[in-house]
Structure formats: structure tokens, C-alpha cells
Design brief:
The chain has strands at 3-7, 10-13, 18-25, 32-39, 46-51, 58-60, 68-73, 78-83, 92-100, 113-114, 118-123. The chain starts with a strand and ends with a strand. The protein has 124 residues and is mainly beta. The strands form two sheets. Strands 2, 4, 5, 6, 9, 10 and 11 form a seven-stranded mixed beta sheet that branches. Strands 1-3-8-7 form a four-stranded antiparallel beta sheet, with no helix packed on it.
Length: 124
């Protein structure tokens, strides 16, 4: 099973940017689709974005479309989430997830491995 560690979270002002990283170990991620999810205080975890094994296909939640970009570097075994034009409602713990397979997962897909999360706080 692949192990995932997120980094790059922090405190940023509204309108600012952050780039999250998800470093994988244990297995190479080139057989895995990857996803980002988030959970705000008092709310359920929600889907943010997914990317297929090669990076050729991506899918975003409507709430982040046009502001966030998911990407991957299989040579570095790392997945990224570039977040621009951040809003206070983007404040949450962000989780990276991996799903074995070559297709593009849907927001309701079951993922096989999860990271511990990284906190993103956007001040208004």
C-alpha cells in the first residue's frame, strides 16, 4: 500500500496562493489515480480534484474550478495542488488520496490510501 504525506499548508490572506504537495512512498504512484479532498470544521469531507495516472485527465469540484490546479510528477512520486485566489471558505484540512487504477476517479470513488492532512487557513 502506498503511504502519503501532505505538506505546504499554512496561513494565507484571501486572494493569496499556496501549493500543496503529496509525497508518496512504499510504491510508485504511476499505477494510481490521485485525488485531493478537504474537510472544514464541523463539515463532512468533500471532493476537491482528481487526476489520472498520467496526468492527462483531471476533474474539479465546481467550487475550485478555475482557481485550483492538480498536477503530478511520477518521477518524483509526488502530486500537487496549486491553489490560487484563495477564499475564506477554502479553509480546511486538505487530504491527499490514492486509488489503484488507470482511470479518472469520480468524486464518489473509494480511494485506497489517505494521508494525514495539512491545514490550510485563509484569513479574510
Amino acid at each position: 500500500q502506498v503511504q502519503l504525506v501532505e505538506s505546504g499548508g499554512g496561513l494565507v490572506q484571501a486572494g493569496g496562493s499556496l501549493r500543496l504537495s503529496c509525497a508518496a512512498s512504499g510504491r510508485t504512484i504511476n499505477s494510481y489515480a490521485m485525488g485531493w479532498f478537504r474537510q472544514a470544521p464541523g463539515k463532512e469531507r468533500e471532493f476537491v480534484a482528481t487526476i489520472n495516472w498520467s496526468g492527462s485527465s483531471t476533474y474539479y469540484a465546481d467550487s475550485v474550478k478555475g482557481r485550483f490546479t492538480i498536477s503530478r510528477d511520477n518521477a518524483k512520486n509526488t502530486v500537487y495542488l496549486q491553489m490560487n485566489s484563495l477564499k475564506s471558505e477554502d479553509t480546511a484540512v486538505y487530504y491527499c488520496a490514492a486509488k489503484l487504477g488507470l482511470g479518472l476517479p469520480s468524486p464518489r470513488s473509494e480511494f485506497d490510501s489517505w494521508g494525514q492532512g495539512t491545514q490550510v487557513t485563509v484569513s479574510s
